Amino acid sequence: MSKMTPEQFHGVRQRMDLIADQAAVERAFDDMAQAIEQRYADKDPLLLCVVTGGIVTAGLLLPRLDIQLRLDYVHASRYRGATSGGELHWRHRPSEAIQGEHVLVVDDIFDEGCTMAAIVDACVADGAASVQSVVLARKERAHATDYRPDIIGLTVPDRYVMGYGLDYKNYFRNAAGIYAAADEDV
Ligand SMILES: O=P(O)(O)OC[C@H]1O[C@H](OP(=O)(O)OP(=O)(O)O)[C@H](O)[C@@H]1O
Ligand SMILES: Nc1nc2[nH]cnc2c(=O)[nH]1
């Protein structure tokens, strides 16, 4: 995994713009959790975290959910440390575990939408009883698919965003807010 120098890291941090502060993001998580509880109270869903970016979203949702549920993960990535997407690479697809389940796919962002659409299609192909999705953020842009997530925390501008699990060149996933990279850094 490639590294940034401290000078590069601090430069990106100084230039980035705040999109949603910690309080706004935490409120979005409360709303997402409420929507999930309403849909899945009696369904014993299988939450499917999309690694890596979805880890923080799943981790902040789980303790807010007071319902019977289980957790598994898929690992599918298009960006792989870059700021524009490419082909989807599957690294973990738990096909057998998905058969007959009410699956809720959990990810950090719906941008072009290709990643989520492909994961949802894969779950259907693997025999899920139902498949819905939740994302922390949806980008305000035209998407490359007709598929839309069922539950969306925040809408963010069409800029490269980071924080709360979203990376910039593998860094900033731990930022406690959602930030947009400056044009010169994208
Ligand atoms: O809507 P799309 O344009 O398809 O992009 C969304 C995907 O991009 C990011 O993953 P990425 O491929 O960067 O991998 P990561 O989870 O390791 O960050 C993000 O976590 C979503 O899964
Ligand atoms: N970190 C990050 N990952 C993405 N994947 C697709 N779009 C984005 C984005 O704006 N930021």
From TrEMBL:
Highest classification ranks of the organism: Bacteria, Pseudomonadati, Pseudomonadota, Gammaproteobacteria, Chromatiales
GO BP annotations listed: GMP salvage; guanine salvage; hypoxanthine metabolic process; IMP salvage
The species this protein was found in: Thiohalocapsa marina
SUPFAM superfamilies with a match to the protein in the record: PRTase-like (SSF53271)
Protein name: Hypoxanthine-guanine phosphoribosyltransferase
A Pfam family annotated for this UniProt entry: Pribosyltran
Residues covered by the Phosphoribosyltransferase domain: 19-168
Superkingdom as given in the UniProt entry: Bacteria
Keyword list, A-Z: Glycosyltransferase, Transferase
Keyword NAD: no
EC number: 2.4.2.8
Catalytic activity: GMP + diphosphate = guanine + 5-phospho-alpha-D-ribose 1-diphosphate; IMP + diphosphate = hypoxanthine + 5-phospho-alpha-D-ribose 1-diphosphate
Gene Ontology MF terms in the entry: guanine phosphoribosyltransferase activity; hypoxanthine phosphoribosyltransferase activity; magnesium ion binding
GO cellular component terms given for this protein: cytosol
Top EC class for this record: transferase
